[in-house]
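Tutorial handout. Part one gives the primary structure; part two gives the three-dimensional structure as tokens.
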Amino acid sequence: TTKTDSGGNLTFRKMLSRTSSLIAGSVPRTALRALSVRGFADWSHVPAAPLDPILGMSQRFQADTDPRKVNVSIGAYRTDEGKPLVLNVIKKAEKLLLDNDSLNKEYLPQRGDVTYAQLCQKMLFGEDSALLKEGRVATAQTLSGTGALRLGAEFVKRYAPGTAVYISNPTWGTHNSIMDQAGVPYKPYRYWDA
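Part two.
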């Protein structure tokens, strides 16, 4: 039988037990002990991260019961019901990708799609950039802007310790905290005429 909590969800212990059973043949017993429920309880001293100012506003919007509310916190298109609006052009592009059997569905190299990276470099630095011609630009494809910042912060921390990075002001609330958590010093620069 499957044990569930009051919300109908599998209990953590049951999920851990199932996972342990599946991997028990290939993982040493000491490693399985490290995955015990007791081991996870040791993380209880970790404080919750503060709400991001913009995403936190979105969470407060979700909790607000006023029927007249309008979500202006995140720059995303929404339907009249407040759901994310997927533009028709995006739907068409997704269908083209889905229907194209000639596309490579294999894992990308560690630094990402080479052609995509080269096109990004040309877009950012210009076709005739001396930096590109001299091979002085490196590009790595990441999963998100947050992922890119964290990867960049780790790179700076490891290969240019003590070097400050510049972050636009204004910026997303997470950008400064990513540098703080990575131990990378940062300085603000004024963004346009903000």
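Part three, for discussion. The chain is about 45% helix and 5% strand. The mean pLDDT is 80.
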